[in-house]
Amino acid sequence: MAFDPGILTEHVPALLSGLVDTLWLCAASAVLAGLLGVVLVVLRRIGSRPLAALIDAYIAVTLALPLLVLLYVSFYVLPDFGLLLPAPVVGVLTLAIYYAPYIAQVIQAAIDGVPKGTVEAAVAIGMSPLAVARRIVAPQALPLLLPTMTGLAIGLFKDSALLSVISVHEFMFAAKSVVSETYAPLEVYCMVALVYWAATALLHALTRRWEQRIAVAHGIPLTR
């Protein structure tokens, strides 16, 4: 079978449109997942014991289920209970719900990794809880967060390809449409693989550079 990338020339706009949609979907999902993750951490730390148990149950169930199952439940089962949402909204919300527990676990681990002595010293000199969080905890926790958060961001970007199964117009959906028109799966999917690799490599490089700057600014040695 001959490899002819020229077949894709006239379909580049459709593929680019799908890639742009993927980036917007991932950005919206990441923001929502981050906010929900922070809320989970805060409620778990300051809420009542029943609320903490409920949050723990949500995290345990979500971490145990494949993303594809959650997508199918959200898109095909919830409408039976009167909750009918557009496919892109379902995709964004499902990704956010799926990744929020991971983010919460990472944030919790980073906070636990901050030396308790620094926090106790800040409280002893009269700093407010907000000031302690902003000036003591955050600068020390952020370098601990970045490596794992980078992995989660890359995972979210790759998992966004699953949104094509519920007919969300994104990069993989656009690629499937091109394959159905050109009958050239080799060229299309090789190009798709290359784009995903390039995007994840770029994201990793950017966050790695940010991590280095933060580590240098706060005198924290890098572990990798």
From TrEMBL:
Its main location: membrane. SUPFAM superfamilies: MetI-like. Residues 19-207 form the ABC transmembrane type-1 domain. The chain crosses the membrane at residues 22-43, 55-75, 81-100, 144-166, 186-206. It comes from the Bacteria. It is found in: Cell inner membrane; Cell membrane. Keywords: Amino-acid transport, Cell membrane, Membrane, Transmembrane, Transmembrane helix, Transport. It is a multi-pass membrane protein. Belongs to the binding-protein-dependent transport system permease family. HisMQ subfamily. This is Amino acid ABC transporter permease.
